[in-house]
Write a structure and sequence with these properties.
Elements (H helix, E strand, L loop, with lengths): L1 H36 L3 H17 L4 H17 L3 H21 L4 H17 L1 H22 L4 H13 L8 H17 L12 H10 L10
Helix pairs in contact: 1-2, 2-3, 3-4, 3-5, 4-5, 5-6, 6-7, 7-8, 8-9
Length: about 220
């Protein structure tokens, strides 16, 4: 009888946290759906506040901080006004830093850090390129080290190669095999968390379509 009462107490104590967990997941799934369905940058930015609110309510979860930062970084890359881009990146950095504090060894966060530094370079490539290029490569290398099968790390690696000049080992011919590797990783990647980042699949397909006529040199 004592054992039954003890088990019952454990169940009753666990119920509030279980309820909170379901509420968190349901709300986050809805927020991610709205983010994915956003028709324009303004609609996407409206989702940032939702993720920031989730981050305040669940400060031990890194994923709300991740999505808030991701939207802001992408918005900065689509913004033509350098001052506005910088404003978006400042806000993105706050959430990104929090995510990194919570999960410093998470490959996905290092991919997002690399994307953040690409955003910083994009504001003023001539001035900021030399300043942030090493940060991008370091974060990507770290992402691949922590998650060798992370398809988003491979995709961003391909984008970097695509935009590097030939004399630096970049260009379409250098990028295509990296994109093919990313495509393979996307097809094989598995994660049971429904909240896990999933971006990049469509972008890889678009890049490979552009490079369909590019022949890959076989290595000796």
């Amino acid at each position: 009888m004592k054992k039954i009462l003890f088990l019952l107490m454990i169940i009753l104590v666990s119920l509030p946290s279980m309820s909170q967990g379901k509420k968190y997941q349901k709300g986050m799934l809805k927020a991610i759906e709205l983010m994915n369905d956003a028709a324009d940058p303004e609609s996407s930015l409206q989702c940032v506040t939702t993720f920031e609110e989730f981050a305040q309510k669940y400060p031990d979860q890194w994923i709300p901080f991740y999505y808030a930062s991701q939207i802001l970084i992408i918005a900065s890359l689509e913004e033509s006004d350098p001052a506005k881009s910088d404003t978006l990146l400042v806000r993105a950095k706050k959430s990104l830093d929090k995510a990194s504090e919570l999960a410093p060894e998470e490959s996905e966060i290092h991919v997002l850090k690399a994307l953040y530094y690409i955003g910083m370079m994009s504001v003023d490539p001539a001035t900021r390129g030399p300043e942030y290029f090493q940060d991008v490569t370091w974060e990507l290398d770290r992402a691949k080290e922590l998650g060798p099968e992370n398809p988003r790390a491979a995709f961003l690696d391909g984008m970097m190669a695509m935009n590097l000049p030939d004399y630096m080992g970049g260009g379409p011919a250098a990028a295509k095999p990296i994109f093919l590797d990313a495509e393979k990783k996307f097809n094989e990647f598995q994660n049971n968390d429904p909240l896990w980042p999933s971006w990049g699949t469509d972008q890889v397909k678009e890049e490979l379509e552009k490079l369909k006529d590019i022949e890959i040199e076989e290595k000796e």
